[in-house]
Every structure is written in structure tokens, then in C-alpha cells.
Amino acid sequence: MINLHPTAQQLMTYVDGSMEPMMALVVACHVDMCAHCRAKVEQLQLTISDNAFALESQDNVSFGDMMASIMALPAAEPRVRPASPPTLELDGRSFVLPRPLRRFVDKTGNWSHLLGNLWQAPVDIGGGGKAQFIFMEKGGRVPEHTHRGNETTLVIDGEFSDGLGHYDSGDFIHMDGHHVHTPRSDADEGCLVFSVVDKPLHFTSGIARLLNPFSQLFF
Amino acid sequence: MLVGIPLDNQQRRSVQPKDCADEMAHHLKQVAENRCKAAFSQVFGYFAPRLRSFALKQTGNEALAMELVQDTLSNVWQKAHLFNAEKGSPSTWIFTIARNIRYDMLRKQQNRKEDICADDLWPVLCEQTADPNEVEMDEQITLDQLGTLFEALPEKQKVVIEAIYIEGKSQQEVADQLDIPLGTVKSRTRLALQRLKEMLNDHD
């Protein structure tokens, strides 16, 4: 059951196009998984789109041959729905991804085994930060850390806790330098999350602190 | 010649999106079913200037704004059959297309920050450059391995690194505790980090 949603303000900036674009992808995925937020977004889009297009610029712009060159394009082939959507594979398991992430399956790098029970795969979504899938096997944990910037996470499959809360599939989690947490999954099936960070993490305890001078290599 | 139909700009200027939703929905249907150029020119004439205003506000850049207009309306022309009047108005549909393209453009742009100046001048050329985001992620390492690398450091460097990075002491505190000059702490830290970095790079 989804308990954590983007704030009203976050949904608004997502809809009007002014959100940081990596975070916008995470919000789009949450909206795909969450009927509650989808209804809100559809409502917001009605008003915002009419407002955005209410005013035409007063200067007479020439679009040159833009219209002609567009109409020279062929119609898109009617979308053939593949028998099954592309899935993310790990260790014999297949995960169905939220729709906005499916086109990035091909842009996902190989899984790396990070800790005893932790897996990570980078995703090339563009943007200034890093995007990745993280899979916590049962008992897998990320060392305690805080954030130099923003970390936005969506639970795709499974459950985990981090000392601050407990999270279930579909939950949207936004953290920054005010949060210190230790993500850990005790679910039998483990937990797959999608996470974007705009700056490296800062590890706060134990030997993991040795990672900090090199943290641009990790997460 | 249908392509040359004048756009009635003066009349159009004051019509609000919701007041011409039915008309635009009808045009989109014509585009979807008959590839009707006259219908598309009506859609283009109404939305292109509005999209440009929105895009200019978002990008602050004339070339990027026009790119966004072109990409959005190309999608409208090619995918008009995906418009569903029961789900929303043409303006909402076109707005969400533009917004999603904008987010994609932004992510691509940020990916090549060093090219931004060139991008302003030659947006088309930049679009064709190779994707630079070949992430250097194969340099992964486990915490156990990190512990092993750490153990391999010379004793004097290990003590300093442990105090600073694991216990969280300042370099001055470490100097006081070990009764050595601050400069020595700094040079041992630098050497140790250098060494760890070399070991991390050799790690494969």
C-alpha cells in the first residue's frame, strides 16, 4: 500500500514543467503506480495547460517552413503492444517497471554486487546527477549516510526500512542533508528501488566513511 | 495548395484553449484519419505561437524554444491517432507532450554541460554528438574489499586515516593526539588517499 506521495507543491512543479528533470522522472513513475496522484495530476494538467496556452506572444513570429517539414514526416506506425513489457532482470528474477522507466531498460548498465547483499545498476537517463536501480536482498543494507544534495527514491518492488520509516512498493521518498538514514530490507523477496541523486552521498559511520573521499565513484 | 492556408492570427489571438477544444479535437481527428493537412494547419496555427511562448518562458532561449515547438508538433502530426477526446482536451494533450519533451531535452542538455556554449550556437550539431554518459561505474568495490585495502596501508597512514575518516576527527585534533606537526598529518592523509585511490583503480 502506497503511503508516501510527492507533496502538492512537488506535483504542481512536475505538472507545470519546472521541476528538476531527474526528479521529474521519479515523480512520473510514482504517478504511474499511484491512482491517487494520477487523478490529482490529471486535474492539475487541465488548468495548467489552459493557463500555459492562454496567451499567445504578441510579436509576429515566423515559423518558416516548420509546418511543411513536419507534414513531410510519415505517420507513426500504430503502436504494436509487445506481448509483455520490457522487464528488468536480476539473478533470475524479472521486474515489471513503471511505464516511464521502460524505455531505459536498454540504458541500464550491468549489476554490480556492492556489499554482501546489495546490488546496483546505473541507468543512463541523462541529467546532471546519477540514476540507478538498487536491489537489497533480504538483510541487504546501504551504509548509514546523509546527502550532499537531493536523493529521490521510488520503491518499485518490495519493502524496506531506513530507521526513519518503513516503505512499500510505490512509495516516493525525497531526502536531503537533513536526513541521516540506513536503508535496509528484511523482506524475504528483497526490495528493488529506483533512485536519483544530484550530488554524492556522505557516509556517516564506520569503515564506510572511507568511501567519502571517493564518493563520486559510488551512488 | 493546402499548406499555404493563412493562419488568421488576428482572429485567433483572443480565443482561449477551452473555447476551441471541440474544434481542435475535430481537426486532430481529421489528421489521424486522413492525414489532413488543412486540419493540421489549423492546429499548427493555433498552438505553434502558444507553444513558443510557453517554451520561451521555460528555456529562455529562442533556438531551444523553436526546437521544442517543432518536436512537440511533430509528435502531434505523427501520433494524432493517440489523442483521445474522452480523456482530455487537445490543449492538455499537447501541453503534456511538450512538457515531457522538455524534461527529456533538459536531461540531455545537462548531460553535456561542457557543451552548453557550443549548444547555444550550434544546437543541431550538438544533438549529433556522442552521448558522454558512459558512467565509470565499473570501478565498484565492496566494503570488505575496502577494509582490505585499508589494512594494506602503511601503519602511520592508517592511524591518520582511521582518526579522520572513521572517527571523524579534525586534522588538528589528530596532530595533537599523535603529537606530530599538522603538516605531517596533512601529508600522510594525502599520501594515504592517493594510495587508496591507486589501489581502487588497480582493483580489477
TrEMBL record, chain A:
This is ChrR family anti-sigma-E factor. The lineage of its organism: Bacteria, Pseudomonadati, Pseudomonadota, Gammaproteobacteria, Alteromonadales. It comes from Fluctibacter halophilus. It holds the Pfam family Cupin_7. Coiled coil: none annotated. It comes from the Bacteria. NCBIfam families: anti_sig_ChrR. Residues 127-195 form the ChrR-like cupin domain.
Automatic annotation (TrEMBL), chain B:
Residues 144-196 form the RNA polymerase sigma factor 70 region 4 type domain. Pfam families: Sigma70_r2 (PF04542), Sigma70_r4_2 (PF08281). It comes from the Bacteria. Keywords: Sigma factor, Transcription, Transcription regulation. Residues 46-111 form the RNA polymerase sigma-70 region domain. Belongs to the sigma-70 factor family. ECF subfamily. This is Sigma-70 family RNA polymerase sigma factor. It comes from Fluctibacter halophilus.
